[in-house]
Amino acid sequence: MSEMKDEIILRGLKEHNLKNVDLNIPKEKIIVFTGLSGSGKSSVVFDTLATESRRQMTLNYPLYVRNQMPRYERPHADLMQNLSPVIVVEQRPIGGNSRSTVGTYMDINPLIRLLFSRIGNPPIGSASDFSSQSSFGRCPECGGFGEVIAPDLNKMIDFDKSLRDYAVKFKPLSPSGWQGHWMMTCGLFDPDKPIKDYSEEDLHLLLYGPREGERAYAPFHTKNGPHNAEWDGLLPRFTRVYINRDISKLKQVSQDDVLAVSTHSLCPTCQGSGLNPKVLECRINGLNIAEYDQLELPEILEELKNIKDPMGESIARQAIPHVKQLVDMGLGYLSLSRKMGTLSAGEAQRVKIARHLGSSLNNITYIFDEPSAGLHPEEVDMLIMMLKRLKDQHNTVIVIEHNLSVIKVADEIIEMGPGAGVNGGEVVYQGKLEGLKNSPTATALNHKLKINKNPRDIKSYFTIKRASNNNLKNISVDIPKNVLVCISGVSGSGKSSLMLEAFTQKYPGTIMVEQGGIGISNRSTLATYMGIMDDIRTIFSKETGQAAGLFSFNSRGACPICKGKGVLTPEVAFADPVTIPCEACGGTRYSDEALSYRYRDKNIVEILDLTIDEAIQYVEIPKIIKRVQTLKDVGLGYLTLGQTTSSLSGGEIQRLKLASHLQKEGQIYLLDEPSLGLHTEDNEKLLDVFQKLVNRGNSVIIIEHNQNFIAASDWVIELGPGGGKQGGQIIFEGTPEEMLHAETLTAKWLKDGVRKHSGQAVCN
């Protein structure tokens, strides 16, 4: 009898665009899923395999425990067998609040706090006292935030204007908000007198409130008559309501609104650590806990290895592997205090991977969503070593990836396609690398790197002088205008510090397309995200004489049974959730009344079912055509106007975000790694968009590792030579052709790309 192969068996997969897919996935191998963005990779790997594994894992817990855990619906499939437990490392930004750091995310900080509480000198109480979030540990001056934020009078008040003329420039305290209205009607201040003409007494009362020991009654007028209230002063009120809290949690007012009228500086009491000065007196081998947090990771390793106290040594031994995992992933330039929200996509991806590397479990299925995202080619080798290490520990490693270096090391390649969206959802190839032919990935593997031999002429520059943001070493640089510029360099070399901070501070009119999500939901569609849904509803309203709200499934037009969701999720107590299409509306979300009205022989649902390509031909409104055309330009012509943003792949979201920015008229476009989540074929379309933008007289600057983008640009600026303290310098400026003669890490890979395809060495 032949030996049974241990493999994951999947039959009849129908999630999203999958067309009854059958797959056998071998275990203890590196399996790479590839294919165009939107071809169905995530539908197989995340929405079917990972979801079913998680669902079955939760079935092992008692009902009352399962009720507290995430609930997973059984994916649309005929058969799913031989699944093993999954660990998923997604591309999504790491959650957490503004206090979340590398140390807290990796669970290293609790061990460091324990270490200081046991062997620090002079001794301080418990481990929790070394936290800026404890009542004893937090700095009394800044409340544990490390920064002192104070209102800036000159930013907040225009002294030449009156209260009624918006002298207060902070919106919630201006006449448009209830607090501004209260100021004008309470009787304490003349709302029509310029602030500069107030008496000294009135000015003090307005800005700082009543003097010590005094009270100022200021009735608050409502439709039910005046209510007693006391005036506390503009600056004390602003400080109390908008500063003395975690400003990242404010809902109506954004953090940017508050910071626009404030100054924020390092807290002089705790020097930015957020800790009580008494806590900072406690030291181990001359260093306090804040200094520990600021060390680069290899320096922390040395400190931990130098601890000789028996109790301290046992705690240090627990922390060392976590720190070492980060160093092994090439993140040695980070510190424990580095805020998670400030990491680039590549750095965040590697921190997430490092968190899982400490596990000694095996027979696990590890699923990675584009682990090469944000990595310089030099760093991809480290990633490949890590994937092989996981496989060698008898795990199955499934990777969704477009990076050709990662695809080449796969034991098995599964390509989805042949196209994207409705044109995808099939397996077009499964097997070894050498058998891959006549597919988008086969074409990409044979793609020749085209070095731009005729860069555009440079006539003028954007100038940055003596930039010292984060690790930048006081650098000055000229960035050419009206051409395609590529900013490259290894992770942590200072690309984001230079461009997303120093550059945008000097040129605030820049249209910036950053990484990160778009706030997806199953009620948000392409039409709503692109700002054309209101126009579509207005067309129907004018055509039919009905209110525009009738053509919204979030308003009057919603199906009365499913309330505009299109599906019903019956309450099934402790069982897994079940989603069924609404029979009343057939999943359209709209009421019969809404569907009875038509524009050019189509009802609202039929209009939303048009693909982008079809809509350009069908809808005659110039504003709609202009916005929809940007979606076609970035290669999303196959999506429908009514497609929900929650159903889009990572690469599709990246391009949707780009399209929404391209409809803005501007002169400077700055894009942070636009190739993330995109297949080589999709990148070609994106490059065309950038070249057209430049041809129309714009400046396009991209932060990018992708060699095709670097090779096609007019000018390349590389930062380095390393990351963190070893970075922050300009190590190359010139054309892609000149880069072939340089000795930098990016140049090394560019030469390698040219050499592979030309079969000849590149001269130095």
From TrEMBL:
<protein>
    <recommendedName>
        <fullName>UvrABC system protein A</fullName>
    </recommendedName>
</protein>
<comment type="similarity">
    <text>Belongs to the ABC transporter superfamily. UvrA family.</text>
</comment>
<keyword id="KW-0067">ATP-binding</keyword>
<keyword id="KW-0228">DNA excision</keyword>
<keyword id="KW-0547">Nucleotide-binding</keyword>
<feature type="domain" description="ABC transporter">
    <location>
        <begin position="455"/>
        <end position="752"/>
    </location>
</feature>
<dbReference type="GO" id="GO:0006281">
    <property type="term" value="P:DNA repair"/>
</dbReference>
<keyword id="KW-0267">Excision nuclease</keyword>
<dbReference type="GO" id="GO:0016887">
    <property type="term" value="F:ATP hydrolysis activity"/>
</dbReference>
<dbReference type="GO" id="GO:0004518">
    <property type="term" value="F:nuclease activity"/>
</dbReference>
<keyword id="KW-0227">DNA damage</keyword>
<keyword id="KW-0234">DNA repair</keyword>
<dbReference type="InterPro" id="IPR027417">
    <property type="entry name" value="P-loop_NTPase"/>
</dbReference>
<dbReference type="GO" id="GO:0003677">
    <property type="term" value="F:DNA binding"/>
</dbReference>
<keyword id="KW-0963">Cytoplasm</keyword>
<dbReference type="GO" id="GO:0005737">
    <property type="term" value="C:cytoplasm"/>
</dbReference>
<keyword id="KW-0677">Repeat</keyword>
<dbReference type="Pfam" id="PF00005">
    <property type="entry name" value="ABC_tran"/>
</dbReference>
<dbReference type="GO" id="GO:0005524">
    <property type="term" value="F:ATP binding"/>
</dbReference>
<dbReference type="InterPro" id="IPR003439">
    <property type="entry name" value="ABC_transporter-like_ATP-bd"/>
</dbReference>
<keyword id="KW-0238">DNA-binding</keyword>
